[in-house]
Every structure is written in structure tokens, then in C-alpha cells.
Amino acid sequence: MQRRTVLRTLTTTVATAALGLAVAQGATASAATPPSQDTTAKATTSADDNPFRWMDLDGLRAEYRFMCPAGHCVGYWSLVLADEVAQRRYAGGEFFVYAPATGEFGFFLNTDIASRTVKKPAQVRVVDSDFTRSHPRFEIRYGNPDQPKKARVVATATTWM
Q: What are the extents of the domains in the chain?
């Protein structure tokens, strides 16, 4: 009986050592390997996938960001206020996305939650959605969303067809 216990212990120890050696050698080999061409291709592809590149942006700029809801990271493009527009003083209203031709409202992506209005310029983030694709012109306005025609136009995005 003792012989069997010693044999099992010895077998487990040898297997663990062999596995540890294989993992250590694999980590060293992968660290010494230069990065593949695929990672470079993926990095340049994400810049080429900008859905807003054909839009005329006034007061807005396209920005590529990462978000990790529930631990699964996703890269996405969004429109944010240009630096000179975001640095202006805003008081007494809210930012909202508005399509003047139809009177429809869009939404902002506030962290991972869609919201119709935001209070701070840094929270203005418009993602590629059905709203942005179906309206050739939409505006970021600041003021009272209940009276959109009286609100100040802060930025515009126009798709020329």
C-alpha cells in the first residue's frame, strides 16, 4: 500500500514539474517572438472603419474608444465635441441631439447607458446608430430640450448625398 502512495505522489510531482517547464518555456518563447503582422493590420483597420469619415463635422470630432461592459471590451467610434467647443462656458441648459428636418431626438452614450440629455460637455458622445444614419443632418444643441427650436446650436454633423 505504501508503494502505491509513493508512486502516485511521484507521478503527480513529475507531471506538475513537466507542465510547469512547458509553460515557462512557452512564455519565454512567446516573449522572444516579434509581434505578428495581424496586430498591425488590426490597428490600422480600426482607423479605416471610422463610420463618420464621410461626414462634414462642425464643432465635432470622431474619437475611437474602448468600453468594457460586463468584462467584455469593445472598441467603438463616437462623435465628441471639439476641444474649442467643449471649453466654452455653458449654464442653464442641457445638451441634446436634434434632427431639425424631422424634429426627432437622438441620444448620447453616457458610459454604457444611452441618455437623451447630458449636462456636461465631456458627456457629449454620439455613437453610430440608426439615428445618425437616417438623418443627413443632426445637431448638438444646448438649452431646453422641451423647446428645441429655441436652443443654441453648438455643433453639427452633415452627410452630403
A: 1-33, 41-159
Cα(158)–Cα(160) distance, integer angstroms: 6
Q: What CA–CA distance (Å, rounded) separates 79 from 81?
A: 7
Which residues touch 35 (CB under 8 Å, ≥6 apart)? none
φ, ψ of residue 157 in degrees (nearest 5): -135, 125
pLDDT digits (tens, 9 = 90+) for 108-125: 998 778 999 999 999 999
Please enumerate in sequence order all residues whose Cβ is within 8 A of that of 52, keeping only pairs 6 or more positions apart, or say none: 62, 77, 79, 128, 132, 157
Beta strands (DSSP E) in 3-161 are 55-58, 60-67, 74-81, 94-99, 104-105, 108-110, 113-115, 117-118, 125-127, 137-143, 152-159
Per-residue pLDDT of 6-18, as tens digits, reads 446 555 554 555 5
Q: Which three cell numbers stand for residue 9?
A: 505522489
